User: Fold this.
Amino acid sequence: MDQAAEAEDLVFECKDGIGRITFNRPQARNAFTFAMYERLAAICEQANDDHAIKVLVLRGAGDKAFASGTDINQFREFKTPQDAIDYENRIDRVLTTLEQCRVPTIAAINGFCTGGGAGIAAACDLRIGTNSTKIGFPIARTLGNCLSMSNVSRLTALIGAARVKDLIFTARLVDAAEAASVGLLGEVVEDIAALDKRADEVARLLASHAPLTLTATKQAVARLQKRLTRDEGEDLILMC
Assistant:
């Protein structure tokens, strides 16, 4: 994929200290290509270095989805067990870069937020949804793979072990009300227009606050939460 196509699939713009990342494949429910994952990581690294960026807002284009995970076409070239290991290594690296980004990150979630898309949302600091939001990891009835150890660690820290098992075992998508009740969403608004407005309000508020306080708080919370590495669950990835 050429760089122009990559830029079109994941659009980034920054104004008044607020960086806005848009997953721009609405025809595919904003499913991620490998190039999109890499561009997301690159933007987070840019935010680490560019102190003009105060906050990042992540959203999906269109009205159907935030992001529906990794595009299935990305798996068609997989031939060996190492391909699966390399894939999980990529996802771990990108989501860790997002989670450890210097600035606060806000996921503005409308519609479907599944698989890798839900992983991206879970790695953000704040999550705002709408009444149409559906979140889940339906891998038990789709790809038949498993989450990496770091993804399981992150999700368990967010919603607890029993709820992680419930989500994975049932392969169901939870609605906005349930997502808010278990901690997958911090706030729910009516529709996509209200979502854009609220995400902008929160972003502007965070951009006005002391950046070192926000960064220190992010790092303090991260130090409290042990993340098992992909290597510690490599046998599970290979098993699946």
In short: The beta strands are 10-15, 18-23, 55-60, 65-67, 105-109, 112-114, 126-130, 134-136, 174-175, 187-189. The mean pLDDT is 91. The CA atoms of residues 149 and 233 lie 5 Å apart.
